[in-house]
Amino acid sequence: MDMLCAGHTGDKMDRNQLKLLAIVAMVIDHTAWGFVEFMTPLGQTMHILGRFTLPIMCFFIAEGYRHTKDIKKYLTRMATFALISGFPFYIFFHEEYGYRQNIIFDLFLALLALCISQYKKIEKPLRIVGVCLVIMVSAMIGGWVILPIFYVLIFYYAKDKKTRTVRFVLMTFVFEAVLICLIILNQHYHFSKYEWTVEERLYLLGFAMAAVPLYFYNGRKGKPLFKNRILDRYFFYAFYPAHFLVLYSIKCAISGVTVHDIYIHTNVLAFIVGLLIFVYVLRQPVSRAQMAVSFFMLSGVMYIYGFLLEVTALDVEGVYAATKLQYFAISLTMVAITFCLQELTHIKMPSFIYAAEGMMCIFILWVVFTYRQNRLMYSGIRINHSEGPFPRMEVVGYGPAFYIFVVYCGVVCMILTGVGIYSARHTNELQKKRLSVMLYAMLCMWIPYVVKMTGITNGYEIPALFIPITAAFLSLALVKYNCLDSVSLDVLNAVNKGKEGILIMDFGSKVLYFNTFMGDICDGLERYCDASRIPFVEEALRSRSGNVTFGERTFDVRVDPLIEQSHHVGSILWAFDITEKYSYFEKVKEDASRDPLTGVLNRNEFEKRVSKLIKNRRMGAFYMVDLDDFKNINDSYGHGVGDDILVAAAQAMEKSVPEGIKDSVTIGRMGGDEFFMFYEDEVDETQLGMFAQSVVDAFSSSLCDMGMGNATSLSIGIAICHGEENTEYDDAYRRADKALYKIKNRGKGRYAFSGR
Question: Rounded to a whole number, what is the largest CA-CA distance in the chain?
Fold first, then answer.
């Protein structure tokens, strides 16, 4: 779907404005469902306006898929809010929709269908089957059946605005036509419990009206609604369940609220809070402690959910099923709280405690599932239908297994408390704080049972209300007091404070983890991006090991395979900054190869480099340079002046080299007053002679500047190397040396070629 041109004169609605329109339409629609007669003109008008919501939400599901950086997080977020919205949705509509789900669930299925259709790793026929399966789920339990899925697919795959609008409107009319046919058939055959009339469903044509605001979408996000980034990001998700609670509260205030209503709603709120804490804990850095708290939160949320099923069940069978879930959850909770104490306080719990808890779990589940045969848990259960809109469960009598379970829970709690108190007396201040938080968490689990025994709750069960408080204490221990595994915490600190970059990639080079140092090296590196497209990583992967220079820094890199259960699942890139070390060794290496007085190459380094050139049959000219009568200078002026003249000679040679051939001329000092030069790739005598003369002249000029006049001069012997086979360094050296002494005998301050 193309991004609409923001500069078009008609394109005036941004993303946030469209979403606000959807929210307003949704509130109008649900207000009509709760307070206005359906077939009145006002009711029909409000419901038609409410049809703006679904198409706009579907449109942004398609847009969200196109622009999201992490589709897994997107799916998880949709699934989480679909689950959170479930109870507020049912509380508001009650039995209106039966087992049908809320609109966030519909949008989650639509997003899932789009993900499957775009999953290129499987064949197209399998993708079609997957989308069909999602459509079947939507048809069975979706609130708007299959319509959101088709809307999202249309919005994503339409090539342009016109095509999108035509297909969307056409889909709306097809859906309405099919629905009318089904209504007419149902009036004759009665296959559905919804006894609708055609007139009642014509308001659904209002969906097509959403084509107008969508046509004027400008592709921009628009001004944030809130300054807080998290609030701005999740507002549209959170508003959906929240507005149901507000509308239902208004409805209850108008019709009257009973204590039982407040009780049910408080438990719903506890479930939502518990679920939010569970999601929050899952987003913490992974460690054994995080796993322990997540385990507790999962079992706690299951318990609250089971309790809600119990207090809203309409018959004994529903209560019995909910009771099974509750005891399963509370059995897991006992194991989870033990695990939490061990991991958050780093105390090794005795194995027999876990063994006892596992055996008790099995025993309690057996007792609960066979309750009707053995009556060990309850003597009987009945339903009191006189307490508000939701009937209450009443226990006729408790069996011995119930008291065994209560004693078991009390013993485990006392053991854990004793272990905690004992450990607190032999540990540091931070650990004492962690243990204190753990003890508060356990107290919050058992205080409601003590309160219930006093009778002040009038028979109402309140343990589920305290589970979010317990979870809050455990989350406090996990986050505030940094209760990660000690080893994990130390490793996390070490990898982020060291000078070694660490990058973990999956088999497809997608980034799974990188430490702070690696993030500083690689600009633009982020989780799940393609690491092979990052320049530094690309170079490192190419070399696999060794030194890699990136910018002004040098790194020693190594790429190791990432092995999991004997399978190669990815790679680890290590990058150690050796810039200073590398520079130091380069300097040491350079110093070792240079003459300490003049700065040119020393004899060994010159011989090594030139020997390699001659051995490789490189053409060029070997220069032997000598200072005439240099001994007289040392005797007459002293060695200090002599050193200055040697430096001037080396500088004259370096300055005489034209800029374009700097890399072609190698200069070295043999020792005393003798120097070498090798001019690569040049064998023309005229050119070589001109270069030699320029060196002689440059040195003479330097002497004049020093006030030494004609104190000395340079004599140069030149041997040309034509790249013949078997030519050796010593041969060029001897020929240049012979030419040098030949010219010295004829006259000084001149140059000569060997063989003349």
Answer: 134
CA of 700: how far to CAs of 340, 384, 433, in Å? 88, 120, 84
Q: Cα–Cα distances in Å, from 177 out to 99, 170, 171, 173?
A: 25, 11, 10, 6
Tokens found for residue 529 = 């991006």
Which H or E run includes 320? helix 316-345
What integer pLDDT is reported at residue 60 of this predicted model? 92
Q: Are strands 714-721 and 751-753 parallel, antiparallel or unpaired?
A: parallel
Q: Which residues of the chain have pLDDT under 70?
A: 1-11, 95-96, 98, 256-260, 344-348, 384-393, 424, 426-431, 452-459, 480-499, 527-528, 564-567, 569, 580-592, 755-756
Per-residue pLDDT reduced to its tens digit, 207-233:
999 999 998 888 888 888 777 777 777
What are the structure tokens assigned to 736, written together? 């240049």
Compute the Cα dihedral for 431, 435, 436, 440 and give only its sign. positive
Rounded distance, CA 435 to CA 540, Å? 47
d(CA 462, CA 469): 12
Q: Are strands 620-627 and 665-671 parallel, antiparallel or unpaired?
A: unpaired
Q: Establish how many alpha carbons lie within 13 A of residue 192's alpha carbon, considering only the half-sphere containing its beta carbon.
A: 14
Q: Which residues are bridge partners to 677 per DSSP? A: 623, 667
Between CA 142 and CA 315 the distance in angstroms is 25
Three-class secondary structure of residue 667 per DSSP: strand
Tally DSSP H helices, then E strands, for the chain: 28, 12
For 526, list phi and psi in degrees, rounded to 5.
-150, 160
Residue 629 backbone class (left: φ over 0; alpha: ψ -120 to 50; beta: rest): left
Q: How much is the pLDDT for 494?
A: 58
- The beta-strand segments (E) located in 578-641 are 620-627
- The phi, psi pair for 753, rounded to 5°, reads -95, 150
Q: Write out the H or E segment, with its range, that includes residue 555.
A: strand 553-564
Question: 677 in helix, strand or coil?
Answer: strand
Closest CA to 625 of 600, 650, 598, 661: 650
3-class DSSP string for 595-609: CCCCCCECHHHHHHH
Q: What residues form DSSP beta bridges with 394?
A: 382
**CA–CA distance, 77 with 233 (Å, rounded to integer):** 11
The C-alpha atoms of residue 318 and residue 403 are separated, in whole angstroms, by 24
Crossing angle (nearest 10°) for helices 288-312 and 259-282? 160
DSSP helix/strand/coil, 52: coil
| Bridge partners, residue 678, by sequence | 622, 666
3-state SS track over 336-396: HHHHHHHHHHCCCCCHHHHHHHHHHHHHHHHHHHCHHHHCCCEEEEEEECCCCCCCEEEEE
pLDDT at 136: 94
Concatenate the DSSP letters of all residues of 500-537 into one string.
Answer: EEEEEEETT-BEEEE-HHHHHHSTT--TTSBGGGSHHH
8 A C-beta contact, residue 52 and residue 60? no
Is the whole-model pTM more than 0.90? no
Helices (H), 670-746: 685-706, 729-746
> Which tokens is 479 given?
């986050």
Rounded to the nearest angstrom, the gap between the alpha carbon of residue 632 and the centroid of all alpha carbons in its chain is 77
Q: Which residues pair with 671 in a beta bridge?
A: 674
Could you tell me how many residues make up the chain? Answer: 756
State the Cα–Cα distance between residues 504 and 494, nearest whole angstrom. 16
